[in-house]
């Protein structure tokens, strides 16, 4: 197929324009923006080389001359949305700076709900991803740990955020697909759960629910999860 490399290749090492021909009609930024628009509106499964080519009013084979593989298209998409981060001057409090970035990541993933599915260390070397990692490390300058340990902390926090948001998105999508309200669903499930816990077969769960049977503050849970990762990292030495 036209444009496909015969050996492994990093899309960022591939020049946007090859040879001395005319200037390309589209840039990588154009292609990434089109793919992001489609994914935001229709989901990542709607992203195909044919679809993106049509969005750009070009032939599918022509698109392969810009982006050799669909995986490269995904990498362009992740890099494009990674450019939405804000990078304020680090405060000197590395814990709060890390948590602030985690909150940005969560908001970013909710703006682009397809992101958790595409998150991969393979895409961690794009221009905007490298900018993000460099900023993270600058926030961690006050932390006296080797760079390898700092990178592990960044990866751990990112994993927590990605998993948490993926669950939020999946829950929201399921709720929207139901023929009844979320409140009706919750009432039925709580009634069933209450009966099971009251049966005596689950004494520890009964004790847990008796401690706090009120509504769960999901924002507080998210913050606690992040802080436990950060503080656990410090305690582990």
From TrEMBL:
Q: Which Pfam families match?
A: TetR_C_1, TetR_N
Q: What are the protein's UniProt keywords?
A: DNA-binding, Transcription, Transcription regulation
Ribosomal protein among the record's keywords?
A: no
Query: What SUPFAM superfamilies does the annotation carry?
Result: Homeodomain-like, Tetracyclin repressor-like, C-terminal domain
| Record domain HTH tetR-type: where | 25-85
Keyword Transcription regulation tagged: yes
Q: Which residues bind DNA?
A: 48-67
**Could you identify this protein by its name?**
TetR/AcrR family transcriptional regulator
